[in-house]
Design a protein that fits this description.
The complex is a heterodimer of chains A (about 300) and B (about 250). Chain A has a single domain, classed as TIM Barrel (Alpha-Beta Barrel), CATH 3.20.20. By secondary structure, chain A is α/β, with parallel strands linked by helices. The N and C termini of chain A lie far apart (about 45 Å). Helices cover about 45% and strands about 10% of the residues of chain A. In chain A, about 50% of the residues are buried. In chain A, helix 2 (about 45-55) packs antiparallel against helix 11. Chain A has an eight-stranded parallel sheet with strand order 7-6-5-4-3-2-1-8. With about 250 residues, chain B is an alpha/beta fold. Chain B has a single domain (about 25-245), classed as Aldehyde Dehydrogenase, Chain A, domain 1 (3-Layer(aba) Sandwich). Helices cover about 40% and strands about 20% of the residues of chain B. Chain B has eight helices and ten strands. In chain B, the strands form three sheets. A five-stranded parallel sheet of chain B has the order 7-6-5-8-9, with helices on both faces. In chain B, helix 2 runs antiparallel to helix 3, helix 3 runs parallel beside helix 4 and helix 6 packs parallel to helix 7 (about 210-215). The longest helix of chain B has 20 residues, at about 40-60. Chain B starts with about 25 loop residues before the first strand and ends with a strand. The chains are: A alpha/beta (about 300), B alpha/beta (about 250). Chains A and B meet through loops of A and helix 1 of B.
Chain lengths: ~300, ~250
């Protein structure tokens, strides 16, 4: 087993004996609480503030087989100035692409402060030999990505080989060095909230800087109960060890209203310290346009049309 | 034995469903409590109309004619005198909703295709409550547009009756949406909505200049419709005539 990065007391290796003590999730209560938090009414100034925060926390993403340098370049322009007609709209946090397109994004975003994230480790399935996954992540960093979104091996996780999942995260963490490591659990494939909690704790113990819900290729993706479950795991790790682990819901967040619901969840579960791009990201592509439409609606008073916003 | 009558709740018609106003408000008209739509109901109705429009526009004119004939059948069962009007329009739309080639002096082939404008907002006239609404509602629908109509404010019951006929016909949900409420409140929201492509101000009365000003923001097509008119040109008011020039013999 590879050497894990040093962790504060109470959360060190080995993980296996800890698993029975991780506890199970009360699914009914979890869904109930997520649903009740989604009912908050956020209007006017608070809404504008929340939407601007959501933009600052966005990982603007394109992960299609048909991605081209031109498309990524256009996406980068949008990341820098999401709404060219409104200087009050901030830049996004990062642009997230496949490894081959990292150089294009790096080139376009140089000097803007916007991070370049790359998916790696056999995205989206993770069903590749470990050495290839590690090489994948290392190459993405060498190409200039300063954030790596890795996927866990769900096949190994679901068949109980937690040590393999853990090992791979540790090795990828070593391979990417100073780059920020986000670990994608793909909660839509994990089946139960118990598994989501277990995978969250496992990823954090292995050294994840962020835990991320989904690849965006599987439905369901970032549902509110799953987000709450992972945030509670982050809160528990913070309470036990003092360590701050970030959270990134991705996939299925398409409407500005959903983004605000996710922000409420963060604020109520781990607190306002997490309401910053350093600890919170939203993986999105179509979400950004909906936020821009909402912001312009708040500004002009008129409901907006997608006809007047860029196609991604 | 006395029987407790089942009273009707007068609701909106949005996306093929009959919701109450999201605001929960009602107002009294014709002795009944009728849903009083809010700006969010307008937003929802436009969203439903936008979602339904491409498929409706993609249907053949023949098919749209059949569907509207079916609507006429439903109306017939409820109010015979309006069936004639609807079927009459069904006839004319087949004639107009086809491409036509134009004579051109030159080595060009030139033809014009009518295309629907998109989402049409209709402020129906106050009187007559049903004929006025049908006269303004059906022409854009015939042409492949989807419609959000605001019914007569003082006499909205006929519009709700019509909505029930639409719901039981084959008109796809969202192609026709009918809101009841205060025109002064709903008109500006529709006129300023960037996702509405055309505006029929038949029932706008003195508010027209202000509504036209709002509609100018995204250059909506503005029509001042009449309540009791029946003519194929009413359909053309909500069509974009796209003309293609094609060189011959090159």
């Amino acid at each position: 087993m590879a050497q894990a990065p040093a962790l504060p007391g109470g959360f060190e290796l080995p993980l296996e004996p800890r698993l029975p003590r991780i506890g199970s999730v009360d699914a009914v209560a979890l869904e109930e609480r997520a649903a009740s938090l989604a009912k908050r009414s956020i209007k006017k100034d608070a809404k504008v503030w929340a939407l601007q925060l959501a933009i600052r926390c966005t990982d603007l993403t394109t992960l299609e087989g048909a991605d081209t340098p031109g498309k990524v370049a256009a996406l980068c322009s949008k990341a820098i100035r999401p709404d060219p007609s409104d200087a009050h709209v901030p830049s996004v946090a990062a642009v997230c692409v496949y490894p081959n397109l990292v150089p294009v994004a790096v080139d376009r975003l140089r000097g803007t402060g916007i991070h370049v994230a790359s998916v790696a480790t056999g995205f989206p399935s993770g069903q590749y030999p470990t050495d290839i996954k590690i090489a994948d992540a290392r190459r993405a960093v060498e190409a200039g990505a300063d954030e790596i979104d890795m996927v866990i091996d769900r096949g190994a996780f679901l068949s109980g080989r937690y040590a393999k999942v853990y090992d791979e995260i540790v090795k990828v963490k070593e391979a990417v060095g100073d780059a920020h490591l986000k670990v994608i659990l793909e909660t839509g494939e994990l089946g139960t909230y118990d598994n989501v909690r277990r995978a969250s704790l496992l990823a954090m113990a292995a050294g994840a800087d962020f835990i991320k819900t989904s690849t965006g290729k599987v439905n369901p993706a970032a549902t509110l109960p799953v987000a709450l479950c992972m945030l509670e795991a982050i809160r528990d790790v913070h309470e036990e060890t003092g360590r701050l682990v970030g959270f990134k819901p991705a996939g299925g967040v398409r409407a500005a209203k959903q983004a605000i619901q996710h922000l409420v969840l963060v604020n109520e579960t781990v607190g306002p310290d997490w309401l910053t791009p350093e600890l919170y990201r939203i993986g999105a592509s179509s979400l950004l346009n909906d936020i821009l439409m909402q912001l312009r609606k708040e500004k002009t008073g008129a409901y907006q049309s997608p006809d007047y916003f860029t196609l991604d | 034995m006395t029987r407790l009558p089942v009273k009707k709740t007068y609701k909106l018609f949005v996306g093929g469903e009959f919701p109450r106003s999201e605001s929960g408000r009602t107002y009294e008209a014709e002795g009944q409590n009728v849903a009083r739509a809010s700006r969010k109901d307008v937003r929802d109705a436009v969203k439903a109309a936008r979602a339904a429009q491409p498929k409706w526009a993609g249907a053949t004119a023949y098919n749209r004619g059949q569907v509207l004939y079916r609507l006429a059948e439903m109306v017939e069962a409820r109010a015979g005198e309006f069936a004639e009007l609807s079927t009459g329009r069904e006839e004319v739309e087949r004639a107009i909703d086809r491409g036509s080639s134009n004579p051109v002096a030159g080595p060009y082939f030139n033809f014009t295709v009518p295309e629907p404008t998109g989402v049409v907002a209709v402020l129906a006239p106050e009187e007559p409550p049903l004929l006025g609404l049908v006269s303004r509602l059906i022409p854009p629908v015939v042409g492949g547009n989807s419609v959000v109509a605001v019914a007569s404010e003082t006499r909205p019951l006929a519009a709700i009756e019509l909505a029930e006929a639409v719901a039981t016909s084959d008109v796809p949900g969202g192609v026709i949406n009918i809101l009841t409420g205060y025109r002064r409140e709903l008109g500006p929201v529709l006129a300023s909505h960037m996702d509405v492509n055309a505006l029929d101000l038949a029932g706008a009365d003195g508010d027209s200049p202000e509504l036209e000003r709002l509609a100018a923001e995204n250059v909506k097509r503005v029509v001042h419709g009449r309540a009791d008119v029946q003519s194929p040109w009413e359909i053309a008011s909500f069509l974009e005539l796209k003309t293609v020039w094609h060189p011959i013999g090159q």
